[in-house]
Fold this protein.
Amino acid sequence: MNAVRFDFAGARVLVTGGTRGIGLAVATAFADAGAAVTITGTAAAAASYDGIDPRLGYGALDVRDGAAITALARSLDGLDVLVNNAGANFARQPSEWDPAVFSDSLRLNLTGAFELAVACRPLLAASTLDGGASVLNVASMSAFFAVPVIPAYGAAKAGIVQMTKNLAVAWAGDGIRVNAVAPGLIATRMTAGMRGVEAVEGPQLARTAMKRWGTPEEVAPTFLFLASAAARFITGETVCVDGGYTAT
């Protein structure tokens, strides 16, 4: 009875890291809403991944490669929504406490998102999407709380929050809204190593008010809302989709 349906017919959407997890759920949700969606991954072709919806276009991209970012932006005919989702942490080896790994993580999780947003700015500024074009970044609980095993990832995600604010203010005059989504405990490939390990999982679930893991499909609608005309007066915000983690 209270299902929300978005209409993005005719909208052009780019989702980086859209081959699995939250990225794939977001891309699929936009496609379900009628958008023309392109996803990126690091493999040469989409066939390298399982479960990719045939409606989704595909482009190979390593967000640490500045030349590849420029080439991708130049290949697009137009763009209404950019979802900067690509990223990863190094919770095991190599350790993020290694300065070289720390630097690489910042490049992967922060700098690449900034460079792609800047490269896509002219396309987004030309958008006629109702409510304006959107850049949607992906933050994390590690942006707000110390997670010592992934210091670089946390630093990068904290940077995403502040980058979102600055881009929002700088680009408001172009009709581009910039927001971020910070997921809590979400069951994805990246978090698989935590699940079932009581010493790791237990304290996190204890802090989560809803006492459970979320799913990528529960995160995706927030991206669609923030890109929709219903959010036309929202910019510079980071929305936590965390089952009450930040409220505890």
In short: DSSP finds six helices and seven strands in the chain. The two ends are 30 Å apart (CA to CA). The beta strands are 12-15, 36-41, 57-60, 81-84, 133-138, 176-183, 238-241.
